[in-house]
Amino acid sequence: MSETKKTLNDSTSDLAVRIQELSQEVAALAAEASQNVASDIVHGQPFLITGLTVFILACFVGYHVVWRVTPALHSPLMGITNAISSVIIVGAIMAVWPKDESFSLLGFLAVIFASINIFGGFIITRRMLSMFKKKGS
Amino acid sequence: MENLAALVYIVAAVLFILALRGLSHPETARRGLSYGMTGMGLAIFTTLLLPQTGGTCWSLIGIGIGGAIGAHIARTIDMTALPQLMAGFHSLVGLAAVCVAASAFYTPEAFGIGTKEDIHFASMVEMSLGLAIGAVTFTGSIIAWAKLEGRMSGKPIMFGGQHALNGMLGVLLLLLIFILCITESSFIFWLVAILSMALGVLIIIPIGGADMPVIVSMLNSYSGWAAAGIGFTLHNNLLIITGALVGASGAILSYIMCKGMNRSFISVIMGGFGAEQGAGDAAEHDPDRSAKIGSAEDAAYIMKNASKVIIIPGYGMAVAQAQHALREMADILKKEGVDVKYAIHPVAGRMPGHMNVLLAEANVPYDEVFEMEDINREFAQADVAYVIGANDITNPAAKNDSSSPIYGMPVLDVEKAQTVLFVKRSLGAGYAGIDNPLFFEDQTMMLLDDAKKMTENIIKALE
């Protein structure tokens, strides 16, 4: 019994060491990656690869998360997705009046359109969700 | 600051994923929604603080104006009008994508994608894709909105060579995008925008009203792809992740809707379904058989003596605003000791989950509302199936008549109930223009009146 305990202890400590190593590696990789990203922005071209990686992984996350949404809440799902797809407002805000540039009407309009969606989408979803009640409540 | 912003964007993306995750159950959905709002707040706040963002004041004014409009619409809109509201919202995402793409085209320095007339090739490709998808979403959603709102006939608009024209336009667009990426001419840029908008109109006009749930979901998906395209242009992972989430969500909803109608996505896109709408009076086709027509008192008597009633609501209930009367009727029946349940077909209503929202609005508890596959077995033990404002989704022809246009579509097994009470304004065909043989079955009693009026009369008779 104590034998197994000992080996178990050994393996746990071994595991801990490995995890530490791994985390160091991850940190190093992350630093490297962030450097790459920074250089990507300078060169422009290779962002496509990182972007595609992120995009495809996000598609899979979306696929799995959305299949778990109960059919009863498909309308609120549309409300939320509508609101969050307006995160495009991030680009619009950057376009409104970039440093060393002049005021951009296009950017300003884009901010308005996107905000209609963000507020409209979240509020309509909240309205819908507040109506879903359980028996007796 | 740059890196910090990128980190905050990741946090926002995770919060968005958690928001969708929360929708797996009504209990957790509200928490999920607040995750989503927090994520959006973080994203906007961080962007406003970025060093390259100027004109913060103008951005805030824009958010104020847009926010006030959006909040007003969302607070006052009627839940029946939810599908057209969603279509309208999608068009705004498309329009915003077009505006951002144009801004990036004219001031590329602001987004670090090159200098004017010398934008990186990859960024040009991504930008033009974002532009084209955004423009298609914009006009396509406007047409969908007009059809749902009744500003435009729900009938499909078809003409010769339509698909050839659309195909040619698509190829032309790809060609123009290629030219745009090489020349970076602003004339071609706007030509792409205008042709994409024309394509958006042409894609949606041949699609009939019955297929609108698919179209609303599809446009939902497009608005996501447009956001992702812009994310690629701006080198912004948050936009890419969110765009992919929304795109996937819309695609899955379209798939579920197509399956609910047993139609392939391609055939929906090709359009034309429901062209022969209102093709006929069912009675004409079947002169030997006549429907049994009952009164509110008969219906009240039957339901009062039943032990199990299943209610099947359809879009007609929403149009007649009968959901509140319906819930009242169910309450009285429950007091009489009757077991009352609701059965929802996946494509009941004009958008995914529409019926559930309308019932929830009338204070029907969500644990009395069941999806088709969960309740179909129970019809055999039910004494009464109360069909209100629904037709095609109960049509047994989908199961046993291979010549029927809806053959193979999953339907609710209403005919297995002891008595079927059918509330309908006339004996006419349904939305898809197909006769329902159930009207002439022996166990069926037709209650010919407006859904709300009939239900109210039944309530009176019950009391």
Describe the secondary structure blueprint for this structure:
The complex is a heterodimer of chains A (137) and B (463).
Chain A: H1 2-43, H2 47-67, H3 74-85, H4 89-96, E1 97-98, H5 105-131
Chain B: H1 2-22, H2 26-49, E1 53-54, H3 56-76, H4 82-106, E2 114-115, E3 118-119, H5 121-149, H6 162-183, H7 186-204, H8 212-234, H9 237-261, H10 265-270, H11 282-285, H12 296-304, E4 308-313, H13 315-319, H14 323-335, E5 339-344, H15 354-361, E6 369-371, H16 372-375, E7 384-388, H17 397-400, E8 419-424, E9 444-448, H18 451-462
Parallel strand pairs in B: 4-5, 4-7, 5-6, 7-8, 8-9
Antiparallel strand pairs in B: 2-3
Description of the structure:
The complex is a heterodimer of chains A (137) and B (463). Chain A has helices at residues 2-43, 47-67, 74-85, 89-96, 105-131; one strand at residues 97-98. Chain A has 137 residues and is mostly helical. The termini of chain A are far apart. In chain B, the strands form two sheets. Chain B has a six-stranded parallel sheet. In chain B, α5 (121-149) packs antiparallel against α8. The relative contact order of chain B is 0.09. The interface between A and B is large, with 90 and 127 residues.
Q: If you average the pLDDT of chain B, what whole number results?
A: 87
Q: Which residues of chain A sit in consecutive blocks of at least 5 with pLDDT less than 50?
A: 36-45
Main beta sheet of chain A: strand number and arrangement? Answer: none
Distance from first to last alpha carbon of chain B: 69 Å
**Main sheet overview of chain B:** 6 strands, parallel
